[in-house]
Every structure is written in C-alpha cells, then in structure tokens.
C-alpha cells in the first residue's frame, strides 16, 4: 500500500513537472506567440479611405512569426454580398498586394466599396488556429479632380525676381495645395473668402534660364490637378566678377572667420579661403533659408508695404546676383553668388525699418556677421547683414521708421556697409524690386486690388 502511494506521488510529481514544462513552453516559445498580424493600406490612416477609381490600392500585411493566409473580399455600396478578390496561402513574414477593385459597369453609379481583410499567422496559439487580424475599410469613390482657376497674377517675372498670384481652389477633400516653381514648393495663404488663396513666389537666379509655375491641388483620393500660372518671364544677365585674392586678405578677415568656425585643421591658404567662402557661406545660408521659408496660414485680407529704403542716402557698392570667381596665384579656388545688395553711407549709419515686422533672427551668422531677419508676412522677409549695435531682440514686433541697428564691418565685410537682402519663402530675390514703388503697385498691390474686385462680385 505504501509502495503504491509512493508510486502515485511520483507519477503525480512528474505529471506536474510535465504540465509546468508544457505550460512554460507554450508561454515562452515563439511557436505559440500571441501577436496578431498587422494590416495597413497605403494613404489610409483610419477605417475610411478615398479612391479615384484608377490607382491600385496597396495593402501590406506583416507578422513577426510568419503569415499563413490572406483573404480580401469586397461589397458594393449597401449590398452585403461579399466577393472574393484574394484568398491566398502565404509562407512569408510580409505580404504586399495591389488591389484593383472592379470598375463600375456601364451606367452603374457607385459611391463606395467595403473591403473586408483577414490575415492569419503561423502561430500554434488559439488551439493551433493562429492569431487573426481583421479589418473593414470603407472605400469612398471620388474621381473628380479639384477645381483650380487663376483670378489675378503679376504680368511677368524676372529671373532672380518675384511675383504674386491669387487663385481659386476647391475640393471637399482637399489635402495638398501649393505652387511649384522649377521644382521648388511655395506655400499659399487663404485670401479674403473661403476657397481663395494668395502667394508670393520667386524665381531663384541659380535655377537657370527656364521658368515654370503651376498651382498643384491634390485630394484624399489622389486626384491631382496642375494649373499653369500664365506669367511672361524674362531672363536677366547678372554680373560676373573675377577677383584675385592675396595673402593679406586671406590672413586677415578670412582667417579670423575660419578660426572661429572650424577645427583649424587646414594650413593651405586656398583651402582656408574656400572653406569660408563656400562651406561657411552655405551653412550660414541654410540657417537663413530655414527661417525664411515659414508662411503663416492666417487669412489675408490685404497686404500693403512701403518701398524699402533701409539706409538713408545709401550708395550701392555691390550688386545682387553677382557671380564671383576667386583666384589665388592665378588659379581659381572658389566661387559664390552675392545674394543681396550692398549699401554704404557713413560709418555706423542707422538702419531704418521701412515696414512693420517681427524679428525672427538677431545674432551672429558667420560671413553675414551680426545678422537681423524680419518677417513682413506672406512669406516676405528682409535681411540685414554686417550690423553693429542692434537695437532689437528676437521676437520683437517692430514698427516702420524704427532704427533696428547700425551698419558695420562684422562678418566678411572689409568696409563699413549694409548687406540688404529680400527673401520670398526662403529664396533670395532682387532687392531693387522691393525698393521700387511702381514695381510694388504693378506686381503686388494692383494684383490684390484686382483680385478682390473679382472675388467680391461673385
């Protein structure tokens, strides 16, 4: 009897051990993992998507252990009858399918489909049935392109210059709206009434002689329209300068800027000059471009400016757009574009603000020295370089006629002057245009006035 009880206890003990072992195996073995497959559809973030009837619907399924089966069905409108699109056995960790829903038959009007997606994995969990993910997606049929029409625009644009446009764009499911200029993106701002927009655009002189501007509108169903803005455009020949640099120049300002902005590993004068003129300049301009790309999405009812006159009695000492090639000992060592207008008068002359704005940058910036940047709205910014004794700080709202700083020799300036720049959405443009009242009336204010008259009649 005692021997039988002992045998029973041993059997029970090993049974418990076996059960614990099996339980541990099930709990910790990847074969019995409990993570269901993931299902995603491209350009769809919820249970409703929009489809234009042309594009393939891209479905992706993944599982860390491996997929076993994918089943995709659909139904039309409110019809509950399901039709099989895909029912496939899979032996892979990921699966991609291009779903092509059937096109409506002749005279058949379809507003939506419903997709039913089911994915099973290879896990032995759930009594060897695996983990299952199911997703139901409403597919709204939308094959209408957004409506776009130009209301008013500048007559022409000059290479290196700017222009304006006001236009209408409407779609119930609009997702993207911008202007594409030579592969650059320009943001737009709402104007006066719903579905009307305004923008300043720019033609970067470094983009070459070709120009094209189109309004691009895209909706949730990926219907896209690109409407050309009918600008006449004119090429402009900018100055080309060949400049010989000497040891004294490199050993002065250039070396100072190099030592303040590098690891000081270069000893060759030509390389030191190219570092400051090309690499440091590029880094400084990246900062400027990033700051000046910002466009407010607040409603614009009007946009008025005075012609810019930053330096009273200032004389031009260097042109905008000057393409400079530098030589040292007869060999070309570097090149750059001068992307502003240099103005000079007296030493430490007051720099006066011509228009209201907000200080968005006010600190040292390499070759630009003490550099101020002011936001005037609608993506328009003015830049003031080589300053001394600034009277404003970052974030200040400043009014016209305010003295913001004084001219100086900070940065890469050999003589006391102001480097005055104008940027439209991160692109340097000809300051002369924004210093000309007639140009402003013809290309900005007149366009806005004409557009408002047309819009208010509708």
How much β-strand is present in the residues? Answer: 35-45%
Total strand segments = 29
The CATH architecture of the largest domain can be named as Distorted Sandwich
Largest sheet: 8 strands, antiparallel
Q: What's the number of structural domains?
A: 3
Q: What is the CATH H-level superfamily of the largest domain? A: Glucose Permease (Domain IIA)
Question: What is the percent of helical residues?
Answer: 10-25%
Low-confidence stretches: 21-29
Give me the number of helical elements: 5
CATH class of the largest domain: Mainly Beta
| N- and C-termini, Cα separation | 105 Å
Enter the CATH topology name of the largest domain.
Glucose Permease (Domain IIA)
Structural class: alpha+beta
Global mean pLDDT: 91
Walk me through what this model shows.
This protein has 458 residues and is of the alpha+beta class. It is 20% helix and 41% strand. Strands 18, 21, 23, 24, 25, 26, 28 and 29 form an 8-stranded antiparallel β-sheet that branches. Strands 1, 2, 3, 4, 5 and 6 form a 6-stranded mixed β-sheet that branches. The longest helix has 27 residues, at 2-28. The relative contact order is 0.11. Residues 21-29 have low confidence and may be disordered.
């Amino acid at each position: 009897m005692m021997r039988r009880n002992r045998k029973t206890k041993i059997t029970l003990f090993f049974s418990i051990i076996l059960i614990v072992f099996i339980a541990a195996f099930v709990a910790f073995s990847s074969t019995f993992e409990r993570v269901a497959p993931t299902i995603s559809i491209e350009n769809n973030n919820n249970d409703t998507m929009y489809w234009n009837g042309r594009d393939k619907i891209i479905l992706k399924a993944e599982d860390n252990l491996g997929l076993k089966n994918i089943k995709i069905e659909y139904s039309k409108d409110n019809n509950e009858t399901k039709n099989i699109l895909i029912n496939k056995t899979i032996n892979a960790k990921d699966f991609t399918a291009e779903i092509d829903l059937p096109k409506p038959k002749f005279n058949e009007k379809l507003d939506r489909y419903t997709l039913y997606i089911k994915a099973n994995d290879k896990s032995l969990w759930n009594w060897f049935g695996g983990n299952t993910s199911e997703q139901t997606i409403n597919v709204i049929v939308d094959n209408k392109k957004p409506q776009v029409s130009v209301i008013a625009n500048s007559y022409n644009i000059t290479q290196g210059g700017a222009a304006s446009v006001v236009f209408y764009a409407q779609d119930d499911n609009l997702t993207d709206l911008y202007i594409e200029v030579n592969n650059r993106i320009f943001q737009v701002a709402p104007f006066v009434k719903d579905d009307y927009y305004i923008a300043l655009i720019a033609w970067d002189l470094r983009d070459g002689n070709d120009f094209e501007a189109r309004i691009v509108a895209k909706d949730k169903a990926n219907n896209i329209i690109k409407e050309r803005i009918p600008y006449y455009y004119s090429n402009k020949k900018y100055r080309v300068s060949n400049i010989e640099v000497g040891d004294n120049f490199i050993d002065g300002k250039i070396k100072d800027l190099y030592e303040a902005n590098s690891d000081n590993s270069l000893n060759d004068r030509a390389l030191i000059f190219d570092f400051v003129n090309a690499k440091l300049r590029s880094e400084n301009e990246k900062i400027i471009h990033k700051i000046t790309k910002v466009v407010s999405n607040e409603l614009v009812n009007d946009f008025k400016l005075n012609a810019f006159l930053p330096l009273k009695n200032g004389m031009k000492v260097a042109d905008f757009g000057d393409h400079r090639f530098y030589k040292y000992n007869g060999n070309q060592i570097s090149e750059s574009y001068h992307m502003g207008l240099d103005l000079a008068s007296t030493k430490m002359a007051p720099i006066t603000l011509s228009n209201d704005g907000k200080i968005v940058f006010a600190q040292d910036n390499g070759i630009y020295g003490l550099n101020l940047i002011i936001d005037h709205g609608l993506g328009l910014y003015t830049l003031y370089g080589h300053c001394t004794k600034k009277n404003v700080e970052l974030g200040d709202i400043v009014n016209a006629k305010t003295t913001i700083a004084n001219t100086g020799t900070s940065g890469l300036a050999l003589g006391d002057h102001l480097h005055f720049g104008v940027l439209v959405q991160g692109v340097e443009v000809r300051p002369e245009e924004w210093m000309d009242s007639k140009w402003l009336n013809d290309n900005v204010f007149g366009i806005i006035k004409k557009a408002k008259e047309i819009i208010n009649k509708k």
